[in-house]
Amino acid sequence: METNTTNSLTFKLGSDIEINRLGYGAMQLTGYGVFGEVEDRENAIKVLQAAVAAGVNFIDTADAYGPHLNESLISDALHPYKEGLIIATKGGFNRPGPNQWVPNGDPDFIRQNIEGSLKRLKVDTIDLWQLHRFDPNVPVEQTLAPVAEAVKAGKIKYVGLSEVNIEQIERAERVVPIVSVQNLYNLGNRQWEEIVDYTAKKGQAFIPWFPLASGPQKLAEKLGKIAANHKATTAQIALAWLLKRSPNILLIPGTKSVDHLNENLKAGEIELSDEEFAELSK
């Protein structure tokens, strides 16, 4: 495991998009089971607007959140978009009901996802479009064909992947350049360590989903002690650990609370020592 010695709070996506590494994941701004409209839409709009006002310039959403409703919420809250604000979305899931996620890599479905996201987000170009999952029933070369077409047509600027291994990244890159990978990763679940290091070496962003999970009970005492030393919450320390883990990590913690949002963003002010990082990493 390689670690980040200089804690820069920005990362360059692709060749030209400067992103604040503390972003916002909008998945929670939906109904139960990431399905249907968010319960308090007015509050959800306030959270999105507060995130941008606080300096967040990277918001992660997906066609599947709602489905569709999360993207529409973001455009209702933030369009016309502040200059430099990056909205990343995803495609490739059917949503038959709450907590039900069915990969669909059919090229026609992917094409519909892209066109739908463009309309709902009210943009001519999606800054970052991510394949939500590989469909085991459809060769990824077929799935990504309409994505490559959309890149050529200027409808997508950059392409990313989610929940993939190295072999899958390399296979996808034979179809279209990949600038980011979004896998499950946090202080307590580090199954994708090799992907963090692999993407860092390639200059690709690594976007951990579920970044706030602080891990098993055995970590609680260490986290509590280090949090107390920094006058911080354990969640802030978990995020600070990720920021120090690798300079290509972009964080997208989600919340329905403006107070919690501001608490998460303050994690960027915490500098863990090498000793603290090592202790948490054991």
Automatic annotation (TrEMBL):
Entry-linked InterPro entries: AKR, Aldo-Keto_reductase, NAD(P)_OxRdtase_dom_sf, NADP_OxRdtase_dom
GO molecular function: oxidoreductase activity
Keyword Oxidoreductase among UniProt keywords: yes
Entry keyword annotation includes Oxidoreductase: yes
A GO CC annotation given for this chain: cytoplasm
Keywords per UniProt: Oxidoreductase
Listed Pfam families: Aldo_ket_red (PF00248)
Residue ranges occupied by any NADP-dependent oxidoreductase domain in the UniProt entry: 21-281
Stated name of the protein: Oxidoreductase
